[in-house]
Every structure is written in structure tokens, then in C-alpha cells.
Fold each of these.
Amino acid sequence: MFALRARRAGLRVIPLRNTRHTCSSLLVALKVHPKVAQGILRHSQIALTTEVYAEASKEEVRAALGKLSEAMGRPS
């Protein structure tokens, strides 16, 4: 049904599981609390949700390293 609706909408058909991954990535980018994301993604265990949230973007890693550098008294 998903593929049929995607074709009717003129969208490229992708595996349904990819839409879940995209949704989780967007929730991370929007800084949605992991417990809220767990409910949206229907994960039975918070551990699965936090694993998804552990995938940080390169920008987030750079920002975190910059904050760490500043906290240590070094300019970023």
C-alpha cells in the first residue's frame, strides 16, 4: 500500500523502513526528547531509541568539541 501511494503521489518508491530511519533522523535534528521519539517511533525499549539518537551528525560533533575546547579555556 505504501508503494502504491508513493507512486500515485509522484514520489520515488523507497523501502518503508527507510522512512522510519528518516523520521528518527529528523527527530534527532529537531532535538525531540528521546522518550517522546520512542512514542512516535513505537519502540518498545528506550534502548533502541537511544541507539538511534547516538548517531550524531558531523555538525553536532564539531559543536560539542568546540564547547569542550572552550570549557578547557582554549579558543575553538
Note: Helices lie at 2-8, 16-29, 34-41, 46-53, 58-71.
Amino acid sequence: MKNLFLCLFGLVLISCSSVTEYSLTAKLDGLEEGMAYLNKRVGAEWQAVDSVDVTEGTFMFTGAVDMPDYYYITLEGKRGRLTIFIENSDITITGYADTLHKVKITGSSVQDEYTAYSDELDKYWEKYSEVRKEMIELKEEGDEAKASELETELNQIYEDGQQFSKDYVTDHPASYISPYVLRSVSYEMSGAEIEAELEKLDAVLNKSGYVIELTERAEILKKVAIGQKFLDFTQNDPDGNPVTLSSLVGENYLLIDFWAAWCGPCRSENPNVVAVYNDYKDKGFDVLGVSLDRKKADWLKAIEDDNLTWTQVSDLNYWNNEASNAYGINSIPSNLLLDKDGIIIKKNLRGEDLRKKIAEFLD
């Protein structure tokens, strides 16, 4: 089943402004002192932008941005974070420190449109949550037939939400929000599809960090698109022995499986991969697991607990795993299927789809 990615969107027309700096002032109840942190997400990394003292629930960030962009505010001792588009203007935040997602933000037209989009997209998410809850209840009651119908409905809600955001990018090519929206719906896109979407954007957005990131991602994905030959890499197995991908290519259909011990969906999918592997390992099917773990002990325990008996490798660099970066992996579980010539022939085969595809080749 697909998960609904919450992506945020709004209508913001690019305009000229005489204001060259931003002033972001927050007054939050339930917060006396401590530190407030302003951060920005750059690729898979958090980038610290600023930090200030909180005095009697009040703090202020000042600075300048080249164009409106998406930031995160976190508070010392408080859970959650506030997401906000910052532009060069006087912005105020009021509300409660314990419910940052409900605060009121004024003074930014970009943020106003961002909020308006969020409200519209939330309708898809709310419907998704309702249907998912009903589906789970039906499964618990043993009504698999009706649950299957609702799963189909869930997938349609997901697709509708994705299309809602894609339509925004098409209809608002000069919006400051569009690069963020495009990135949020790009996870399942090919390199060529990302490039086609980027071409819809106004050139004034070319300096957006999201546009730069997506342009680079498109180039990576084109190199590992279906029909392309594998990119070789070497990483260590659990015993510290180096394993090179090319050493496993040639005799079998090979599934390169990107996963991690900390990834719930990966662990849920592992029994399916185990079952297919056990049924076809003597017929010409093999698996190479590439873990995005950080802690070796967790990685080893998951291998044992999930009965993963095929070759496993990792550089224990989390999302900076060299192999996953080379293949443009930005969500897991993800996988690629290579034929005996090392050509990528399918991607992201899960559940019954994996079994059916392997059966096509080996039964």
C-alpha cells in the first residue's frame, strides 16, 4: 500500500519588493526561556541557520533570503517543529509552544498561500486516514474482501493527492512554492519525469535550492533508469569483508534491496523477500541487501531476526550511504532488479509484484 506524502503548496506570484531583510518575531505561551533554533533542510541533511535566546516566551530571528524558502523552527525542551516559508518581510508568530503546528503566522504572503494549500491538501489526508482506519478494522474482523476494496480506494486517494500537487506546479510555474511542491511529489518520478516537470518552472526559480537539488537528482536517476547497466560499488559485509556488486552479477537475476533495521516498512516487507528468495534461490534468483543503518549492532540483529540469509553490505552511513546515493535512493524500502547482463529491468517490486515478476523469468 502506498503512503500519502504530505506536500505543501500554495499560490505565490513572484513580485518585486523593497524589503531586503526579514524580521521574524515569535510570542508563544507556555514558553519562558531556553533556545529557539532556525534550520533548513538541504537534501538529506539539516543545516543550522540561526539560534537565539528565548526571553519570557519571546524570540526574534533576523536575516535576509535571496527568495522565499522553507524553514523549520524548533524549541529547546519542546516537541515538534514549526514549518514556515520565510521571505524578506516582518513576520509574527503567536500561539502556544506546545502546539507549534497550530500557531498563527502573519506578515508573509508566501506563508499565507502555503497555509491555504495545506488546508486543501489536508482534505485528502483526512479522507485517507478515515479510510485506512476502516480498512484496519475490517482486517481485524477478518473481512479481507472489503478491506481489499478499501486498499484500492486508499491508493486512489493517494494518487489524487499527488495529482493535486502536480497540477499546481503546472498551473503556477512562477510560484515560490512550486519547487517545494515538486520535490514533495518527486519520490516516485524517474529522472526524465523530473526534468519534464522542472521545464514547466519559470527561470526566475532556477536559484531555488529545491530546483538545484531536483536537477541533480534527475541526472542521477537517468544514469540508473530502467534499461541502463548497473553502477558498480563496494561495501563491507557484516564480517568486514568487501563485497563488490559486479561479483554477484552474471549468473542470476539480482535484486539490490535498500533497507534498514530502523525502517518499519522495510521490516514489514522483509518476510515477502525472504519467501521469494527461498523459493527461487536455486532457480536463478539472488539478493544483495544494502543497509542504510548507522549502528552495526542494530543491523546485525535485524539480519538475524528477519532471517536474511543473502549477502548483506553497508557502510553504516545512514542516508549518506554511498551506494544508495549513487542510485538516487531517497526512500526505503527501495529495490532494483538486474538481469543476468547487469541491466536494470524493474524497480521497487514489492509484495506479490516481486513474486510475479520473478516467476515470469524463472518458472
Note: The CA atoms of residues 103 and 298 lie 38 Å apart.
